[in-house]
C-alpha cells in the first residue's frame, strides 16, 4: 500500500512539474510574442512618424517653391532718415541695372540710372503687378558723373493703384517726396506698367 502511495505521489509530482514547465514555456512564449508585438508596434509608429515627417517636409518645400512669386523682398526701409542712410550705403547696387547713366526722360534732374530688385523684375517680365516689397531705385546725377540724389518706388500694398506704392525722392539734400501715393509721382508714373516708366528690359 505504501509503495502504491509513493508511486501515486511521484506521479503527481511529475505531472505538476510537467504542467509547471508547460505554463512557464507558455508565459515565455506569450512574453516573447508580446515583446515582438510591442517592437512591431514601435517600428510601425516610427515608420508612421517618419512618413508624417517626410510628408511635412515635402509640403513645406512645395509651399516654398510655389508660394507667391518666388522672390524675396530685400526690406527697403521707409522714411527719410532710414531710407537716405540705406541709399548712401549702396544697398541696392547688386540689383539689375541700366548699363549706363543717360539723360532722364522726366523731371529727374539730368542724368539718371535705374536699378530694379528681383521682385519688381519678375513682375515686369511677367506683365503683372509687383509683389509687395518690389522696389526700384533711380540714381540722380544732375549734369555731372557723381550721384547727387535718388528716386525710389517701393510696393507697399497689393493692387494696381498709385497708392500701392511708397515714393521717395531726394536731391542735393532736399527731400521732394516721402510717402504713399504721392500725386506728384503717380501723375507721371501712371502711364507705366504698374507705375514703372523706365523701358523694360533695362537697356
Describe this structure in words.
Keywords: Signal. It comes from Plesiocystis pacifica SIR-1. This is Cytochrome P460 domain-containing protein. There is one protein chain. This protein has 203 residues and is of the alpha+beta class. The chain folds into two domains: 67 residues; 110 residues, 3-Layer(bba) Sandwich (Chalcone isomerase). 44% of the residues lie in helices and 19% in strands. The protein is built from four helices and seven strands; from the N terminus they run H-H-E-E-E-H-E-E-E-E-H. A hairpin with a 6-residue loop joins strand 4 and strand 5. The longest helix has 65 residues. It is globular. The N terminus is likely disordered.
Quick overview of this protein structure:
The protein has 203 residues and is of the alpha+beta class.
In terms of topology, how is this protein built?
Elements: H1 2-66, H2 80-88, E1 96-97, E2 102-103, E3 111-116, H3 118-126, E4 135-142, E5 149-155, E6 165-171, E7 174-180, H4 183-189
Antiparallel strand pairs: 1-3, 2-3, 3-4, 4-5, 5-6, 6-7
Features:
alpha+beta; 203 residues; signal; Chalcone isomerase; Cytochrome P460 domain-containing protein; seven-stranded antiparallel β-sheet
The dominant shape is globular
CATH topology of the largest domain, anyone? Chalcone isomerase
Report, as a whole number of angstroms, the end-to-end distance. 124 Å
* CATH architectural arrangement of the largest domain: 3-Layer(bba) Sandwich
Supply the CATH class of the largest domain: Alpha Beta
Strand content: 15-25%
DSSP strand tally: 7
Overall average residue pLDDT: 75
Low-pLDDT segments: 1-68
**Nearest-angstrom radius of gyration?**
39 Å
In total, the number of domains comes to: 2
Q: What is the SS-derived class?
A: alpha+beta
Mind summarizing the main beta sheet? 7 strands, antiparallel
How helical, in percent, are the residues?
A: 40-55%
- Counted by DSSP, the helix tally is 4
Amino acid at each position: 500500500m505504501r509503495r502504491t502511495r509513493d508511486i501515486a505521489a511521484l506521479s503527481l509530482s511529475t505531472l505538476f512539474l510537467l504542467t509547471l514547465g508547460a505554463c512557464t514555456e507558455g508565459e515565455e512564449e506569450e512574453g516573447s510574442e508580446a515583446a515582438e508585438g510591442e517592437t512591431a508596434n514601435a517600428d510601425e509608429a516610427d515608420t508612421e512618424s517618419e512618413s508624417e515627417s517626410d510628408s511635412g517636409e515635402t509640403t513645406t518645400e512645395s509651399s516654398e517653391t510655389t508660394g507667391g512669386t518666388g522672390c524675396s523682398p530685400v526690406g527697403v526701409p521707409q522714411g527719410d532718415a532710414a531710407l537716405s542712410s540705406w541709399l548712401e550705403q549702396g544697398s541696392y547696387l547688386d540689383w539689375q541695372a541700366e548699363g549706363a547713366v543717360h539723360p532722364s526722360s522726366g523731371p529727374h534732374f539730368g542724368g539718371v540710372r535705374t536699378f530694379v530688385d528681383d521682385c519688381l523684375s519678375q513682375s515686369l517680365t511677367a506683365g503683372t503687378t509687383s509683389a509687395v516689397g518690389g522696389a526700384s531705385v533711380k540714381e540722380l546725377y544732375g549734369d555731372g558723373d557723381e550721384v547727387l540724389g535718388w528716386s525710389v518706388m517701393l510696393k507697399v500694398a497689393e493692387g494696381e493703384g498709385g497708392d500701392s506704392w511708397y515714393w521717395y525722392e531726394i536731391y542735393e539734400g532736399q527731400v521732394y517726396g516721402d510717402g504713399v501715393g504721392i500725386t506728384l509721382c503717380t501723375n507721371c508714373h501712371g502711364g507705366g506698367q504698374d507705375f514703372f516708366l523706365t523701358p523694360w528690359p533695362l537697356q
